[in-house]
Amino acid sequence: MQVNKPTFLSNSEPQLISHQRRIPPFKALRAFESAARHRSFSRAANELNVTRAAISQQIRLLEEYLDARLFERSGAQIILTEQALHYLPLLTDTLNKLCLGTGHLFGKKARQTLSIRVAQSFCHTWLLPRLADFHRRHPDITLQFYSTTNLYPSNNNVVDLEIINGYGHWDDVIYEPLTSEEKWQVVASPSFTKQFDFTRPIEEIATFPKLATLGYSEGWKEWFSLHQEALIFSEPVMSFDSTQLSMEAAIQGLGMLLAKSILVEDAIKQNDLVVVQSLSMPSNSQHYLVKNQTPSNGTKINHFCHWLKQCGLLCA
Question: Helix, strand or coil for residue 42?
């Protein structure tokens, strides 16, 4: 009686499939994706827990492998090439799917939902650009956001956390400042600085086109008073009800803007805006983290707070 033997792939066949998949080194891909997403080698190094030199080395390795330039380096700024701009979303999507798929297939933690009520401008300018990092670190936590412009905590414990731009001194609330100090800075686009000379006397700068954000207790009047009491200045040419809109107007070169440092720090690092006056003004209000902590949500709140510290906040 003849027995049919099972057939197996020959040793050459898996090698053939492997050769058909031209996949660059994974460490180099992660280094590029992180550096490109942050537009910073230093931030990529912090995220991947390696040195800046290691990030640079991995990116050079990837460039050699692809035989393509991925970054144009101009001083401290890094600019993505056209090919890199198209490559980045492909990598980010692939890594996110790999992370989610691994968690679904092998993860042992039950998914949790962390609800956060957050100040609109802070969410748009600071939080959103960093949330992909939190998701990678904690794929088991689903984030649920509610925007707010309130100066006070809700006091109803409907959400787990609140990030509020206010004045503090709240009773029966657990809260802490996100930063040690917030200040107002005068910023403008690089194109605006080519049209208006900020080395001129303050009396002349006071006539430059200004932008304003509505709803704050401090503004151009208080900032100019730091230079000279009762200094005459022109009124803003445009005012907006949100910082993200006034920032976009400033980036478009429509005027100079007085804005909170924490909200414009990323735009400054990316050279979309530049600080045009060295004198800053302390802010009476600042951003606070309010914890509506219970025995059931303590762990996920601690994860989010620890992540904020890794991002440089909650260090006061």
Answer: helix
Query: Each residue of 233-271: pLDDT tens digit?
Result: 999 999 999 899 999 999 999 999 999 999 999 999 999
- A 10 A CB-CB count for 85 gives 12
Tell me which residue of 176, 152, 181 sits closest to 164, measured CA to CA: 152
Q: Mapping DSSP to helix (H, G, I), strand (E, B) and coil, where does residue 257 land? A: strand
Query: CB–CB of 232/226 below 8 Å?
Result: no
Contacting residues for 131 by C-beta, under 8 A, at least 6 apart: 143
Quick check: 134 and 304 in contact, CB under 8 A? yes
161: Cβ contacts below 8 Å, ≥ 6 apart: 114, 115, 116, 117, 289, 290, 291, 292, 301, 304
Query: Who's near 313: CB < 8 A, 6+ residues apart?
Result: 178, 179
Per the CB < 8 A criterion, the answer to whether 254 and 248 are in contact is no
d(CA 247, CA 183): 16
Give DSSP secondary structure letters for 275-308: E--S--EE-S-EEEEEE---TTTHHHHHHHHHHH
- Helix or strand holding residue 248 (H, E): helix 243-251
Question: What's the pLDDT band for 10 if we cut at 50, 70, 90?
Answer: very low
Q: Where are the extended beta strands (E) located within 94-218?
A: 112-119, 141-148, 161-166, 174-177, 183-188, 210-213
Q: Using CA atoms of 169, 175, 179, 183 in order, give the dihedral in degrees to the nearest 10.
A: -30
Query: Residues 146-165: pLDDT tens digits?
Result: 988 888 888 666 899 999 99
